[in-house]
Amino acid sequence: MAKLLKTAFVILLVISFIEVFYYLFYLNSFKLLFSKPDTADISGKQAVNETEPPGTPAISVTPAVHPDVLERLRNYKYDPKSKMSIKTELQTEIKDIDYDGRQSGGDFYPFALKIVTTSGRDFWMYFPNFLYQKVKVYSKTDGVDQPLKPGDLKIGDTVLLVETYNPRFAPDNPEQVISYEIFRIQ
Questions:
Q1: Total structural domains in the chain?
Q2: What keywords is this UniProt entry annotated with (predicted)?
Q3: What pLDDT score was predicted for residue 56?
Q4: 161, 89 in Cβ contact below 8 A?
Q5: What is the mean pLDDT of the chain?
């Protein structure tokens, strides 16, 4: 009986080593442990930081997304009947505002905000014309949202940026953005 138990234990141990070898080497998961993360964001474009001098490498960090969620996104990507949308929220402080627009990279943007990112860096957000038309600004006071104009935003305001978009479309496609709301928090 003891010999049978030893044999079963050895077989289980060998199977475990084979599984570890398979997952680490055959599926190339071993490379992930020692490789540097990719600096490209989900859209495949590199992040551009306008405040750093030319030649300074820019780094874009995207949060980890569970593989099941990515698979569901792929399933809905080309489905025109899909009602799926993604909503992102960021609470931050306004450092600077260009009400009259801003020139960047050869393009003119009718509205731009300089905000503080979650990592503490200053970052210019450029609003193309199609996005600026969808921007709605509210003042959030005691749970009541009062409509404002973008010109009512001031430097130093704490704001909540809420973007709702459809992942079926490319970032430069006007149909991607469903709504963009800015809540001034008081």
A1: 2
A2: Membrane, Transmembrane, Transmembrane helix
A3: 46
A4: yes
A5: 74
